Amino acid sequence: MRADGTSDAADRPGTGPAQCPSKRARPLPPDERRAALIAATLPLVAEYGTKVSTRQIAEAAGVAEGTIFRVFPDKDSLIQAAVSTALDPTEPLAELAAVDPALPLRERLTEAAGIMQRRLIGVINLLIAIGVHSPPPPKEHEEHRANLRAPRERILELTADLLRPDQHQFRYPVEEVARLMQLVLFSGSHPLITEGQPIAPEEIVALLLDGVRRHHPEQS
To answer: What is the distance between the alpha carbons of residues 48 and 130, in angstroms, rounded to a whole number?
Structure first.
């Protein structure tokens, strides 16, 4: 304590009020800042739809609200970028390609089904949140289908590859089994079809491999 009544601690680094750690995010390069804002926006859009505020986004990202407008011209462009990121199939395709083909068939397909189901539920819930409840208008429909065709075909290819080591067990070609699996996955994962109770990946695989009837030993 000094003679004037002030504390010596005021001069020590990190002890005075001016040294209080900031709650704001550290400065980032533009590309990293953009990615961080998109990551903060996605769960908020899934919860609040397009009504999410830039203030909510800024708080979630740990930045000042004005920082958003140094990266994006407006809220709509940020939401569009977030939706585009969510629809990008690169990551789930990489996860699907990484499933170990040496795993037992049931375990292999259950892991793949889990990857695809998480993707489906995330995308569908996001589209519902932003108000997309139906296919695009006819003029845009062909373009929309074209954009979806390549990743869908790649998913079918990867699924067929996972089935191929055990193709002798199936009554259909592995390509057809992969297509059937996609149909069951979609209908068993869509929140409006399942009323919010999606079929678990294990059940989807059991339905695909075993059907719904009990099997006698001689039928196995």
So the answer is: 8
What does R_g of the chain's alpha carbons equal in angstroms? Answer: 25
CA–CA dist 174, 170 (Å, integer):
7
- Tokens 């695989």 locate to 205
20-86 under CATH 3.40.109.10, yes or no:
no
Within the chain, all domains assigned CATH 1.10.10.60 are found at 20-86
Residue by residue, DSSP assigns 123-163 as HHHHHHHTT--SPPPHHHHHHHHHHHHHHHHHHHHHHHHHH
Distance CA 68, CA 102 (A): 46
The domain made up of 88-219 has a fold known as Tetracycline Repressor; domain 2 (1.10.357)
Per-residue pLDDT tens for 53-112?
Answer: 999 999 999 999 999 999 999 999 999 999 999 999 999 999 999 999 999 999 999 999
Ranked by mean pLDDT, the top range of 28-37, 120-129, 163-172 is: 163-172
